[in-house]
Amino acid sequence: MESHQNHIIKIGVVGLGYWGPNLLRNFSQLEGCEVAYGCDIKKDVFRKLAVQYPSTKFTVSYEDILQDDTVQAVAIATPLSTHYELAKTALERGKHVLLEKPMASSVVQCQELIDLAESKGLILMIDHTFVYTGAVKKIKELMQELGDIYYFDSERINFGLIQHDASVLWDLAAHDFSILRFLFGDVRPKAVFAQGTRHLSSHGEEMAHVTLEMESGIVAHVHASWLSPLKIRKILIGGSRKMILYDDLEPSEKVKVYDKGISLNLQNITPFNPLYRVGDIVIPKLDTTEALSVETQHFIDCIRSGAEPQTPGREGLEVVRMLEACDQSMKEGKKVLLSS
Amino acid sequence: MESHQNHIIKIGVVGLGYWGPNLLRNFSQLEGCEVAYGCDIKKDVFRKLAVQYPSTKFTVSYEDILQDDTVQAVAIATPLSTHYELAKTALERGKHVLLEKPMASSVVQCQELIDLAESKGLILMIDHTFVYTGAVKKIKELMQELGDIYYFDSERINFGLIQHDASVLWDLAAHDFSILRFLFGDVRPKAVFAQGTRHLSSHGEEMAHVTLEMESGIVAHVHASWLSPLKIRKILIGGSRKMILYDDLEPSEKVKVYDKGISLNLQNITPFNPLYRVGDIVIPKLDTTEALSVETQHFIDCIRSGAEPQTPGREGLEVVRMLEACDQSMKEGKKVLLSS
Amino acid sequence: MESHQNHIIKIGVVGLGYWGPNLLRNFSQLEGCEVAYGCDIKKDVFRKLAVQYPSTKFTVSYEDILQDDTVQAVAIATPLSTHYELAKTALERGKHVLLEKPMASSVVQCQELIDLAESKGLILMIDHTFVYTGAVKKIKELMQELGDIYYFDSERINFGLIQHDASVLWDLAAHDFSILRFLFGDVRPKAVFAQGTRHLSSHGEEMAHVTLEMESGIVAHVHASWLSPLKIRKILIGGSRKMILYDDLEPSEKVKVYDKGISLNLQNITPFNPLYRVGDIVIPKLDTTEALSVETQHFIDCIRSGAEPQTPGREGLEVVRMLEACDQSMKEGKKVLLSS
Amino acid sequence: MESHQNHIIKIGVVGLGYWGPNLLRNFSQLEGCEVAYGCDIKKDVFRKLAVQYPSTKFTVSYEDILQDDTVQAVAIATPLSTHYELAKTALERGKHVLLEKPMASSVVQCQELIDLAESKGLILMIDHTFVYTGAVKKIKELMQELGDIYYFDSERINFGLIQHDASVLWDLAAHDFSILRFLFGDVRPKAVFAQGTRHLSSHGEEMAHVTLEMESGIVAHVHASWLSPLKIRKILIGGSRKMILYDDLEPSEKVKVYDKGISLNLQNITPFNPLYRVGDIVIPKLDTTEALSVETQHFIDCIRSGAEPQTPGREGLEVVRMLEACDQSMKEGKKVLLSS
Q1: Which of B255, C327, D47, D81 has the fewest Cβ atoms nearer than 10 Å?
Q2: How many domains in chain D?
Q3: What are phi and psi of D159, to 5 degrees?
């Protein structure tokens, strides 16, 4: 990797639909990085982007990027069903890969990509964006103050973009699963139960509830929906000493820390003498740097240093494992046990 | 019943902890009704109440009420574990009964009470208070405008009163189950899955998630918790034509009706052309009469007329059936099927 | 006063409309205090109260109270126009007086009452309730952390009870003026400007804006209205180091302290580098005791000890002085200067 | 104007600080329009913009634009103190002008620009953006349903960008004055009172309250501040039949219409029978097109057709007249009367 350190890293951004332009913008703004190619199968998105990024070459041919030896990396933000093929080909051709979440359509595909990247000595990083936000990083810092953790409860609902090749869980709950893993560490749920329904599309659920039984009695729950008139982006984390509310829609007060310890003297609890004492609430100042700016820089840094990214392929695989378990649970109508 | 119409109906209120004083207050304010007795095993609550209700006799002896032939009815607001015994005895002694929710500790007990009331020709009404609120009655009116129903989603969480003989579901979800039945009619869920945890008490869950699979693809979900620093009382009901948000904590805007129809032309949905059109939102004016005032009046009216109450024993039984199914699901760790 | 210490203090509550029953309830609950009389010119309120307070004598005759030598004090919650006469008579007959805000209809009347109480050695306390709330007491504690004070800005609006003998300022802004004096100390504004309008009644403004120029460049502003569909009870206090938001409608997060210091290096301020740094926000735990409970106890304590109350007649007078200045400003259409 | 209809209109955007880039972006996206020049005295903003707008020429020389005969119009978004000179020169050189609010530093300057534009037959349009929003246009439609208007009350506060050549009123209240004129028509206030303070800067107030006495008893009030930790953008308009809340920070529910008629039968108003009846609340669907997109298109359309813009120079002048009256009121410490 040594030799790259003084060079500009050239990159190709593949998939220019909803998320790709954000990758394009962020990589373009980084020092020591150049977006050499933008690629999509729909030509009509090029016109506007070409005006904004005159030094980027726009193409419908992925092969154009792959065969250009000066391009070291690709960032893939295409529909889920194409992740595996596109990433595999890029790795085979020696390119580092930043891959949109969810990583791929199955654990098997994820494992293959991980093995391939490792054998080639290439960076394979998954775009779990929330892990790079000031809010989630602050919550991570606060976790040890919470005491015994009781629950993790996420609600991620709104009128959403129904996708053609992914259900609401693969789209939205993937965020929660990556946040959960970042906060609680590399721990697999013991059991997964999911319940979802589809009303409008033929291919995947538009709304679902997932219950994850974690070690030591923690229950994580995720409610994801594309069919809610109310937009909610809210995670509650409860502990014996403190509790956290993370409301991502709050413009400047996203994280609230409740110092509401719970007294254990149950004998004394009566309707006129309830169980809780309420302490102060603190709304900490957060780093407001755009997460994708931090994340794209981190990808470039990892390419230069050879270090493992904070969200490596292994993280992507574990999230996909949870999503697969959800699908299995919905199909079988029962809880699915995961071995650790 | 004829003979009662011109008489004052005398009533005894049993259980003067958290809810009983509200029954006492409301029955005392009704025309044609007199609270002859207040009863609790804890004598120390009498002093204050005796000052406020000088014409009510306060006693620790339930028998005092039962043997008084001028008392026609009892309203029972004691802990759950005593409901069955107290109601049974009252019915056997010829008293009409208003029974706090949940009706009893098991379906078997509920059925026994129903049969007993029927054989004696007595009113057995369950105190499903929400059914008598202006908000829930307005939502009932609006149900047929919603189109195909997609979901019913309730969140009922806060720092709560941990109870000694009931779990959070028997305490809080009982409300949602009674609302659900009122809105959707006499339809039993096909399957119930519940997941709950207990961290502080030895006898029952303090937080739980319940998924109910209803007929025709509707999924109902209830999240109940005594361990949330944030207080939420919110039900979302989604339909193909309209959606409803019921936020019980809003002082004057409890019900919001979203005229957000969902277009079905999925081909045209893209990130830049999403699926929904947004219409007006209406916040209807609600009847703000206290629910318990309406409900206590209704109980008295039913005693006089002999009519079946809106929330008869059968409603209480069906709610308990759902609660039992939740407990079974949590015990067995799997979905429980209910026959219709 | 010595001799009273071991006796029950007997009190009469005069005026049983909106606020009087709260005084009745709170005095009745105090140890060492007995509400001997309730008095109102409208007999029809007695029936309900008589049931709740069987040991209180209800009467339409104020004289009944005055001539009873065992009654030491009266609490007056009648319409404003009667305050002066009722308080004066009570003081002349040797009774201590707790007087609803605003104290009287003019500064002259207030001064007369103060002089009378002093000459008789009687307690004259004004019912400036907010001064006794946990929220306002907490804000008082925090004032010295704010740095240089820049402003005090209050909005107190809703659909209100239009009163027959008081304008919206005498009704609502009286609260703000008493809070302002409690927080900033015994400082008279240098100038007052008020602008108000009346649309529905013939006797007083239903909405008004008041600007008070305080010493050292602080400007206080109060917006009071009975004609707003939105209910707001919000005071913002800005300082160079911290700022406070007091939202009285928040059920459990009434006071928010913003640690948003303002950097003074104006050269560096640009649209892309704005002036502020944002620190943490803290929502302190508050004492949630009912203010009127604290206040009625304080009145009794002052009667026993002879100590001056926290809100003596002098406070009432200064609030009335500000209200008079507002009225004068509205009448003359210009700023009114007050001598200090 | 005929001859222009089939040509591309070339435009120069002058001032590329905070607002200018938005003009650049919107004009660039219009059909039949080309941004030929971008101009600013700070060269360092060019680099980034040049990448995004490769066909625009960036220059520090205003003269470059003026002498280019193919440029028909300039859009000026520079600091207030330069508006008059830049607009005057452009008009003299035959260019149409879109001028950022506030139009100029004095009524005299505004009148000169208006006369100049008229004598040259050129379009002079003022960038009163809010007038072009879906929210304000919807409110305009609703005005006649309100009945008699009682008040217009605006709060526009936050931690703001302290400007070097404008006070908070010239910056923020200018928006309210333009909205007020759009809603109420071409009516000048009879009297203006303003009270403001400066704590940090030497040149202008950072916070102020303005009261405008309109015809027929309507009072308009504007609270503007750069020193509030809380961000508020809220206008309340009260009428005898309906009231409107416009909260510009609400992402999708900006306008709320309260059908809260006020009953006039004052005799019956008591604390237990208050004055208002509450009807439904409606949150109408709004046009969500970006205001600046509508506005830039309108400017181009006016150039082509020769029609008078919705916000012509005369509107800019009347807003500046109100701002001048505020400054005079603050200087003299009294109400300023305006002749109609």
Answers
A1: D47
A2: 2
A3: -75, 115
